[in-house]
Amino acid sequence: MPKANVFNMAGQQVGEIELSEAIFGIEPNQAVVHEVVKNHLANCRQGTQSALTRAEVSGGGKKPWRQKGTGHARQGSTRAPQWTHGGIVFAPKPRDYSYTLNKKVKRLALKSALSAKAAEGAVVVVDELKMESIKTKVLKAFLAAVGATKSVVITAEQDEIVIKSARNIPGVVTTTAKILSVYDIVNAKQLVIDKAALAIIEEVYA
Length: 206
Hints:
Blueprint lengths: L2 E5 L5 E6 L2 H4 L5 H15 L58 H17 L3 E4 L9 H10 L5 E5 L4 H7 L6 E4 L5 H6 L2 E5 H10 L2
Parallel strand pairs: 1-3, 3-6, 4-5, 4-6
Antiparallel strand pairs: 1-2
Helix pairs in contact: 2-3, 4-5
């Protein structure tokens, strides 16, 4: 049974908690995780790149010189791809790179990512992740105390105080238990999970 240390907001260890075997204790499927991360990055692409083909470049209507007898290679247009200021061969055009994956694949990838972090001992549970006011310094000190550097902070519900306190800390990402991202988990070194958020994760993804 995978376990994680439980800390309070002062950064002191106050106990240990058993994690769900079904979510944090499976054999990670690297191929599925790779597929989901690739899908996430593809869906993030804007797809707004554009270049002109030889049909779209202005000019080049006249044949630059006669076909034969000049000693030059034959040319039909000064806007052919081999010319300076010519069009681009197979020019990229705006397109949608996004595609969808099976829900079961996404869920397996999420469980695999969480299990891999639990196996590494990179899951930190917080007794109650609560802050009185927006203080980056306080949150940074807490993360340093529990040994979390490049981390994902997971709360039960959207907490504006935690979000605003964390947004200026390099490498720290905040999210809620119901919208976990495989990419964020894989990209982080530690997961800092509120105890209430852990209960939601074990209930929703089991």
